[in-house]
Amino acid sequence: MICTKLLQKITTTTPKPSHPPPRPPAANAAAPPPSCSPPPIYRPIRAPAINLPPSNNSIILAPVPQAKTVPPISPPFHFQPPSKRIQTPDDLRRFHDSDSGKHFLGFVVALSQSIHSNKISDPCHESPVTASIVSILETLIQWVHEIPPTQQAARYGNVSYRVWHDRLVQNSPDLMLKFLPPHLQPSTVEIVPYFTDSFGNPSRIDYGTGHETNFAAWLYCLARMEVIKEEDYPAVVARVFVKYLELMRKLQLVYCLEPAGSHGVWGLDDYHFLQFIFRSSQLIDHKHMKPKSIHNDDILENFSNEYMYLSGVAFVKKEYRSKVEVGALSNSLPSVVGGGASTVRSLSDELR
Fold first, then answer.
1. I want to staple 227 with a disulfide (CB 3.0 to 4.6 A). Which of 220, 222, 263, 315 is the partner?
2. Are 300 and 267 in contact (CB under 8 A)?
3. Contacts of 42 (CB under 8 A, 6+ apart)
């Protein structure tokens, strides 16, 4: 959160001088004019309160979100096209405080916990639904090969992406029918918009963490319909989300998608964030891998295919080396690049 540095006027007592005090004035001496009083001392409002005793607990952190069981929907079903409800900061605050917002965040935490100390290649339960979703994402990757980028002078935003996205919109309802049971097929009117908004904006030809959140919201909808169950969570992260990252990185490179809002030096990856939440769970209790391991190129090369954290950093360093050199990794988000903090603390910071 960016805080505006307001100034608060705080008047303090004048410190005692180190030299001997002056002689007291004579009884009939005139009092000094009011203008001779010392000026007030200004302190920033973000400074520690001067009237409180020193304490290491003076900074109160937001509670760490906890995993929650996804509440299933019950018949009769009333599916309807989603509409944008969050328009203002107050709307966003109400969403965070609502049951829907808390359960959605709890779902993300539950996904993260499902791969606690696991590598991507570790065996896990793969249901027909998760296998079908992976197959759909592979189809979308194949479309990228079939729709080559247009030769153009612009650095960002290759117009061929719009052709790819149009094919996505046209085929998405049929893609959903590959894994939806018959009684839930009417839900396409509600879940397809989340799915099509998960891969970027065709007008601006950009992609960012908001689109990534749409993909998580689409998975959450499937979980509410019990198409995805809790035993599927490890495969949702290690198979589905990993394949989603592969697709999005290909789209970013082939069609030069512009970041949908850069975080500057404080954001290591302008496109993704969930991978850094999931990676923390992967590395918890690891005997040798620590957050600072990203500074070792040999570790990145040999283990990036097993850990999303290392994969994300390796991709950024390889494809966006100019940004990494200008805004060095040590200046980026400390919980992401590993300035010595533990993996457990990194996960807590990112979930907040």
1. 222
2. no
3. 7, 8, 9, 10
Residue 87 CB neighbours (<10 A): 8
pLDDT tier at 6, thresholds 50, 70, 90: very low
Rg of the chain, C-alpha, whole Å: 27
Tokens of 79: 């599916």
What pTM value is reported for the model?
0.73
